[in-house]
Amino acid sequence: MSDKVTRREFVLTGTAGLAAAAAVPAFGQAPTIMTKTSVKPVVVASANGNRYKNGGSMTGVEKAFSMITQGSDVMDAVIAGVNIVELDPEDTSVGYGGLPNADGVVQLDSCCMHGPRRRAGGVAALEGVRTPSLVAQKVMDETDHHLIVGKGAQEFARSMGFKVEDDLNTERSRKAWIEWKRRTDPLHYLDPVKREAAMRRVALDMMADGWIDPNHFYGTINCDAINAKGEICGVTTTSGLAWKIPGRVGDSPILGAGLYVDNEVGAAGSTGRGEANIYNLTSYLIVENMRRGMHPKDAGMDAMKRIKANTVEKRLQRPDGNPNFNINFYVLNAQGEYAGLAMYAENNVSYAVCSENGAQTLPCEPLLPGKSTD
Q1: pTM for the whole thing?
Q2: H/E/C letters for each residue in 121-151?
Q3: Average pLDDT of the residues of the chain
Q4: Which of 128, 134, 188, 189 is most buried, judging by how many CB atoms fall within 10 Å of its CB?
């Protein structure tokens, strides 16, 4: 990855003559002009993109990178990569076997963005289809819309030839839901504030007891990639927050929140607390930060600080006032530079990368020390 100071100095030096001859723009610094050159292909994803293989020989990032280097469209490649995770019942955060909602129903969300075509598509609260990312791609390719939800999304999927199943639970996800119901039934009689606090305690207890992977409570896989021509695409797909209110939609299918791609600048995607991401439209903010010349790491850290500053409700804070939740970002710019960021480094939170050097799982860089809960 190139040094950010050198790159900025280059931009500043190249524009010095123009700056001397022209007035300063009304809003200060002019946007950085991104010039496309040959780029080394790279795929960046959440950590589960380099963990699950669904019985095959490749992880998600390996599959996407292989397809990109063989000439496939970047969108087709990243979706094929996340399909591996969506279809793998061992990953309880997306697709088949994802942790269900409070009624025991698996509802899935996804969106995708095609940088060169300036197109996007998404689905939310989709039931019965194991690969919501492919349905999101159909929304992008076959309609004039960006987002189709609920029963409409299911009927659209059916009309596009997708198999609609009665139940996407596996034995594992159903047993986890039954255990959650067993632990939480008495809580339905508490007032809403006490119930939310009690629900959080139950979730933490179930993580400690091994019922829930701590990194999968919020679910999700994000995968973004760039090819040698500088074409950028991204996809995010999830089963959402474990035990969510039926119909709840998080950040994953929301453009600018769970995913944002600008082919001239870069891409950003997220996993973690979706509500915080939606409020701040953080993926969009990260891409705009990169447009102004920030390196992916700096762009992500700045956005993370925005989330921290906007987390003002006591129920969402640790005793020290910092957020009591984690959120992660995976960032890629048009030069092929990348970064993985997290609010906290708890549970060894990491991200996946695949390049000419092969697939790697790297630690995310945290904004704050410690853990989300004391």
Answers
A1: 0.83
A2: EEEEEECCCCCHHHHHHHHHHHCCCCEEEHH
A3: 88
A4: 134
